Amino acid sequence: GNSVTQMEGPVTLSEEAFLTINCTYTATGYPSLFWYVQYPGEGLQLLLKATKADDKGSNKGFEATYRKETTSFHLEKGSVQVSDSAVYFCALSEGGNNRLAFGKGNQVVVIP
Amino acid sequence: GAVVSQHPSRVICKSGTSVKIECRSLDFQATTMFWYRQFPKQSLMLMATSNEGSKATYEQGVEKDKFLINHASLTLSTLTVTSAHPEDSSFYICSARHPGRKETQYFGPGTRLLVL
Q: Most exposed among A101, A107, B86, B92, judged by the fewest C-beta atoms under 10 Å?
C-alpha cells in the first residue's frame, strides 16, 4: 500500500538557518504529493503540492521537488523565521477519491 | 479562504458513554469529508470517508458500529464514538474536500477526546 516516511525527531534551529525536512514515499502508481503545516492550536493547512514528477511546489519561501527516481519530496527553506515554528506533515494521495496518507510529522522549532 | 470547524475542541467522558463530534464547512459545500485519528507522535490515520447522502466508507480495521458517521448535509458531518472506552482516547480530526479546488482538503482544528 501507499506510505510516507519522514525523518525522525523534532528539528530545532536558529532564525535564518536553512531548513530541510526529508520525506520519502511508497506508492503503487503516480501519486500527488503534499506538505501540510499545523501551527499551534490550528488545523492542518496545505503548504504546497506537486502532482507529477519533477514538479516543484513552492509557497511562503518553502520549496519541494517531486523526485520520482528517489521517491522523495523533501521540504526546504533557505532562511527560517520564528513564525515558521510548527509541525510539518508530508502526504500523498492517489486515485480519484483523494484519500491522503500522511507521514508522522516533524515538529520544527525556530529559536530567535 | 475555506474554513472547517469542529465541535467540541475537547471532551472528557466516562467509559461506556457515547460522544458526538461535529465537523462543519463554514463557507463552502463539501460533498466529501474525511475523519482521521491521531495518536501522540504518530501520523494521521484515515478512519473513514464521509459522503453526503450516502453511507460512509470505512478504512480496514475501523469498526463501523463503533464509529458512526453521518453526513446529512453539505456542510455537516458527525462522528459518534459509541460506548467509548479509554483506548478510544485520541485526537480526532476532520477535513472537507473543496469542490472547486482539485485535491485540496481543508482541515478542522481537531477534537481531543479523553475517556475515563
A: B86
